[in-house]
Amino acid sequence: MLKNYVIVAFRAFTRNITFSIIHILGLSIGISAALVIYLLVRYENSFDTFEEDGDRIYRVVLDMKFGDMVGHSPAVPAPAAMAIQNEVSGVEATVPIMQFQGDATAKVMIARGGEQVVFKKQPGIVFTNPLYFDLMPFQWLAGSKSSALSNPFSVVLTETRAAQYFPHTAVSDVIGKELQYNDDLTMVVTGIVKDFDKPSDLTSLEFISYATIAKTHLQDQFMMNVWNDWMAYSKLYVRLSKESRPADVQARMNAVFQKYGAHKDEQNKLDFALQPLNDIHFNLQYAGFGQRTADKKVLMGLLAIAAFLLLLACINFTNLATAQASQRAREIGIRKTSGGSRGQLVIQFLSETFFITLLAMLVSASLTPALLQLFGEFLPPGLHFDLLHEPGVMAFLAVLTLAVSFVAGLYPAIILSGYKPSAVLKNQAFAGMPTRRSGIRKMLTVSQFVIAQFFVIAAFMVGKQIHFAMSQDLGYRKEAILNFELPRDTTHYDRIRNEISNLPEVEKVSTGFLPPAMEGSAFANITYDEGNTGSKAAANDRLRTVQLRFGDPSYLDVYQIKLVAGRNVREGKNIDETLINESYAKALGFLQPVDALGKELTFSGKRKAPIVGVMQDFHEGSFHNPIGPLVYESRTQGGFFHVALRPQPQGTRQWQDAIAKIGKTVNEAYPDADFNYRFFDDTIAQLYVTERNTSVLLNWATGLSVLISCLGLLGLVMYTSAARTKEIGVRKILGASVSHIVSLLSAEFVKLVLIAFVIAAPLAAWAIDKWLQSFAYRTPISWWVFVVCGALLIVVAMITLSVQTIKTARANPVKSLRNE
């Protein structure tokens, strides 16, 4: 019996090869989407799931509230690690992780000839203690886990990094060799660990002993005794004891914080918080600079897209399968007359569906590597597909194939197997069917177009918001500005600036800190002592974490930032002046910007600087966040260069020539440094990379959903045309024109598309409104968007309908009436 099912399924496939290919195309689209999204979701959810006692591991983070401003930081003050270790009960292990600062250049001395090999800008170098290896289950190849990082000036390398520094050297022989970092730190290799191949947000590759910091100048550089300031390089992990409650430990940690550094009032709060290990990869609030996070809402949205595409594919299969009913009616009648039961016919049709679904699955599996490469820029770098070595993926595809076969094939199987032998053999199988069962097919078609219309509107609105963000006046110039950073050696800064300023292609040059907007944040703790100034500030001695920029006076000219009160900072090495933005002036309680002039700000509780000007507010981040308080401080020495280029005449290479000249100047001054530049408008675009990725994925989902929906619509019109063949023949005999018949056949389907639009429009409006709420500044949901998207889908539907309706309308009526 099974053999017979397979033979009949294969014959049905080859007999209707065109429909079979359409079936496979529709199902393979849905299965491919589901497979790629499954691989992505499975990968993202596999992060940090392997650590022993992972439910007791937490990252210590900061929650901040300053007036109406709320912030979060994955970094903590450097001395917190030692204080928590010594003074907080319930903590079993305290693991500080300090990112190596500077260019992170490693030098290795070659034994023969005394030559040095230099490795520039090595990523993944951290300072930590031996307990790090209790958190991460590294396999040790050489050295001792308990003692490798116990002493100062020791370093543990991963296997790959050891092979890079000491090629053709046995692992055991690497122990005891020396590495020099940034010319002034010499370390001895005390351990080698195997490369870590499991997904984790702890991605360090070189581990320098934490005790080294106290023995070097890094003690000051890392601010090891500063409680009221912190930088992004200072992270802290803890493992709680089994009997400890996180809330209790967190309270004890904040008591220590209060003891040494944090100050609270009703308006200003700074607290430690414990972030669970399994939350780090998904919590965007505490995402560190350069850390890749996954948004669970986005993953759920992708799963919904996969489910919708699969549903569309199943509906498409159902409509096309029932459209072929007229070709299978006689076969069904003969099988039933010969003694075949309805149950056997159901199994037969389900087996045919399974055969087609199996082929679609094989097509999808073969296309997946190419799809992963096509969407590589949207996918995490560690994601890969290896079907033969991944039992979980094989099981997923097996279950998916069975589920799709059942969902897509059940309805056609029940309908086709229900035909009465006497009716089909008298050629009356379709009598009355449009009225009895077409309602279900119409409902399925409407469902398809509801999903397609939803995607069309969503994709249009996401693109509209991105255009809104990129086309608004951000409060500064963003075009034709070059940014690059120089090594910390300031010897050649002035000469480089002068040479660049003299280039004919350059309009203006400024040196200092970061550009007005960037990925991540740069904060400073600034106090404003209201004293007896008469301002409306709510509290004295206001401590705020404020966005910080600094540089020379030309900074405002390069970026064309406007002043609403006062003047620019002055040039000079001993000048210590500040500018604040309008938002900071309002936060300090000044009714007018001019009222802030002459007041003093205190930086980190020590240095004071007067306010000499108030800048017009500009966007220091993406449109997700409102403009917050910001201070610009005068400093003459800064390694970040901002170069405004003159307009480039069309058809010339003026900017390329300028970049080449700037690169030559930098390389002459710093032969060992790489000249890495970036245009400022690219930095702005990077702020919306998530939205751009979402837009691209939505465009793909939209295109696929419209394609599948049109295939389903084509199936329904084919079915209806077949059912109404004789009616159309009679109409043509009585003088109906081709255009009349085309409009007669099309009107009903256009009505279905309009019904789908009425259902989809409010759903899309609700979903888009929810998405736009994540933006502090957003585009309106305009009525014309829905009109354009609805009209677009109607046009596509009309083109699809015309393929079959015109063919049907032009058919010879004699052929359709011949068997009457």
From TrEMBL:
InterPro entries: ABC3_permease_C, MacB_PCD, Macrolide_Exporter_MacB. It comes from Chryseolinea serpens. Residues 20-255, 444-624 form the MacB-like periplasmic core domain. GO terms for molecular function: transmembrane transporter activity. It comes from the Bacteria. Its main location: membrane. Residues 304-418, 703-813 form the ABC3 transporter permease C-terminal domain. One of its GO terms (cellular component) is plasma membrane. It is found in: Cell membrane. It is a multi-pass membrane protein. Keywords: Cell membrane, Membrane, Transmembrane, Transmembrane helix. The chain crosses the membrane at residues 21-41, 298-320, 345-372, 392-416, 443-462, 697-720, 741-761, 781-803. This is ABC-type antimicrobial peptide transport system, permease component.
